[in-house]
Amino acid sequence: MTRVLVVGSVNMDLVVEAERYPRLGETLFGKRFASYPGGKGANQAVAAARLGAQVTLLGCVGRDMFGSQLKEALQAEGVDIGRLREAEVATGLATITLAEGDNAIVVVPGANHELLPQHLDQDEQAFRDADVVLAQMEVPLATVERAAELAQRHGKPFLLNPAPAHPLPSSLLERAALLTPNEHELAQALDERGGDWQALMRKLPGRVAMTRGKDGAYFCRADGSLHHQPGFVVSAVDTTGAGDTFNGALAAFWPQGLEAAMALACAAAALSVTRAGAQGGMPTLAALQQMLK
Ligand code: ATP
How far are the Cα atoms of 4, 87, 157, 186 from residue 264, in angstroms, in the given order? Predict the structure, then answer.
């Protein structure tokens, strides 16, 4: 069982469906409302746990109803939330309005921005106990940097999913055992405008695996050659959470070696797009094994 430490965000996604978008100042009746656990940290933690990893999540929620619901949901997935913090601000949330075949999203980071570097120092033991550390960019940059430092101090591979897209300081580029951007995030991470993604990948030989939707994922080997893991052909229903499933799976299967882990991560992510929802679509280890039979 791989011991995965995730340092990241925990959100509640509030999804409203309406016939159309309201005009400024207008009140409109919507068609449907649903809430779903989300946040890249929590999603990736759940993906890894469903695939059999022993997962601990370092994050922060508010002392409110959403915080309690999210903690319960994580616990039900077998994620260790013993080190999850609570802050006196609202739990992170995303309001998502679906209308006219499009979506409009407002994210309020709330408690996610209260996860500070000193909190990770207090939980240094979690880094000692992990086999692999996984982070994203939805908690403060200084916190992600400290996670990378602590992972390095304890000799643990640090996997960084640089999402949402953000230019990365050299300290992070140097410390990450692996970055897992999509094409846009890769350009942003390296602070490059446009440019050929293959050339960008070669700037970090041996340390970048880039996802490309149904095309699968690419890894730039240490000698600069590219390894392509083709995507698995499935009938896609909802691609939300594909990236999170890929990252959680990559961490869970990390001890098998990168190219094997990438194949399993692409398979798990393909399965996730055959079902609705981010966490809702994430496969169990049994479902993954069944697919690969
Ligand atoms: P998101 O932020 O929407 O979750 P992303 O941009 O981070 O996605 P993608 O590159 O879209 O990540 O997808 C991650 C992985 O999921 C891909 O490498 C691929 O293996 C798998 N995947 C995504 N879409 C499909 C699809 N339509 N069919 C099969 N596999 C898919």
Answer: 16, 36, 19, 22
